[in-house]
Write a structure and sequence with these properties.
- The protein is mainly β.
- It has one domain: Glucose Permease (Domain IIA), CATH 2.70.70.10.
- Helix content is 0%, strand content 33%.
- The protein has strands at 4-5, 8-10, 19-22, 37-39, 47-49, 54-59, 68-72, 76-77, 83-84, 87-90, 104-105, 110-113.
- The strands form 4 sheets. The chain has a 4-stranded mixed beta sheet, with no helix packed on it. It has a 4-stranded antiparallel beta sheet with strand order 10-7-6-11, with no helix packed on it. A two-stranded antiparallel sheet has the order 3-4.
- β6 and β7 form a beta hairpin.
Length: 122
């Protein structure tokens, strides 16, 4: 179900459960950056979901953590009440074969899973 309020979508968290394994200024790769590493339930491979209707803009290979860059198709509301377009970077998914540039995912559509590609430490 898409969460909408007027002319913008309400962002959803991209997993059913949040287990932070490394936060901002973490011990390994997050020095000086605004990034979170998140694991799902029980440290298994949990699915990830599109936080809003989004389009894939770019992707990189396994050595770069299978980075997938996406943007919201419509404006979204952020936690601080700001309404604007959102940009996302998802990392560490073990398989990104269906992430063709230009592909659109609907809000809460499953599009990947937590993984161990690149320099995953959790």
């Amino acid at each position: 179900m898409t969460l909408k309020n007027g002319n913008y979508e309400l962002l959803r968290f991209p997993m059913k459960m949040m287990n932070i394994t490394q936060g901002n200024n973490g011990q390994f790769s997050h020095q000086g950056v605004n990034a979170l590493d998140i694991a799902g339930k029980d440290a298994g491979i949990s699915p990830t979901f599109a936080p809003c209707k989004m389009v894939i803009k770019r992707k990189e290979g396994y050595g770069q953590g299978n980075a997938v860059f996406a943007e919201s198709v419509d404006k979204v509301m952020f936690a601080d009440g700001t309404v604007d377009y959102a940009k996302f970077m998802f990392l560490h998914d073990n398989y990104t074969g269906d992430f063709a540039v230009g592909r659109v995912f609907q809000q809460w559509e499953e599009f990947g899973d937590e993984g161990t590609a690149g320099y995953a430490t959790g």
